[in-house]
Amino acid sequence: MEEWERWERRVQTAAHPVAYRLVRAVAARGPVVRVPRVGVVVSDPRLAREVLTDAERYTKTGPGAAAALWGPVLGSRVLIGLDGAEHAALRRRLGGLFTPGAVAGVCERVLRAPLDRLGRKLAAGERVDLVRVVRDGAAEVIRELAGLPAGGADFTDAAAVVASLRLWRTTLSGRQTKRARAVLARLSEAAVAAWRAGDESTVPGRLRALGLDEAEARGAVGLFLLTGTETLVSFVPRSVALAHDTGRGPDAITDALVEEALRVTSPTPVMLRSAARPGRIGGARVEAGERVVIATLLCTGAYGPFSPDRDPVETTDLRRLWFGAGPHFCLGMPLAMAETRAVVDGLRGFPHLTITDRRPARGVLIPAYARLTLQATGRAAAGA
Known about the structure:
Elements: H1 3-15, H2 19-27, E1 32-35, E2 39-42, H3 45-53, E3 58-59, H4 66-74, H5 84-94, H6 100-123, E4 128-129, H7 130-146, H8 156-163, H9 174-187, H10 189-197, H11 203-209, H12 214-227, H13 230-245, H14 255-265, E5 271-275, E6 279-281, E7 284-286, E8 291-294, H15 296-301, H16 333-347, E9 353-360, E10 369-376, H17 379-383
Parallel strand pairs: 2-8
Antiparallel strand pairs: 1-2, 3-5, 4-10, 5-8, 6-7, 9-10
């Protein structure tokens, strides 16, 4: 087993010691397998895309799907709780906040100072925890978008709420719901103020202009506050580690390598849908109301091991499946890519980075490193 593969396996099993092995064992039985208490597990990329693009037969709002988990906390008038024409209309109106140009501007403005500090520390030969850098930077970007004051909120509790979720749960427990509501109320106070001010450069202000009331805007912003940092905290350190473990420095992290790292890590390891009516996925019967679990990690992993020099034509069928497909394709994808590029660009001046310490995170929803400590060596550290 290659070094990169050993560490990726440790990251996955630390997060989900039982579920990771279970899903791999299920996939070995076939591309579509019904698992008690979990749902119908799909591990074939072609079938996964069919499910994700067929919003009439497989909904995000039915029993066991994402809306069932978050609806009691966020309300029903958010993207995750809508389907059909309402979802399309809200998504279209919010889209202006997440164009590549808009998010690149936000990232450049918000991340310039922390990435400058990162560069100075590395140039001085200091050891830097990339996980902390990415977490703090992603949180600041989300604060900017949500209308929160810079440095004015700690997202630790929000991360803990997300980490408490498990694959086999179809709803939040009463205790989890109560805690999530309390966290959301605390974090969203400033967002509500932004909604009242009507500043359309923020998500709350845009939602007010769209006609959403205060409670609806609070729920929409809550989705960003509760989940907006974890994917970045998972993916960016893992991509740098993958490059390192295959003999590449940050200066060799190209767009193609980033896409390949996304394929291998699949920072959204599962996606949930609910069958709206009876039907079949491949040759497997699916009943109305059954949960469908898209095992994204296994779907994208079907194309083989990490290979940054792979011909992109080989994976065109995936078409960024790790961000979803169909009408619910991740609206925040341009933001995630802009933040990734910003951090990688901040590291490019240090081609000889060494990982001096790393530790996988335990008990989290999205597999990640809890710590990934970097140190620059050679001429870059001495002369930068």
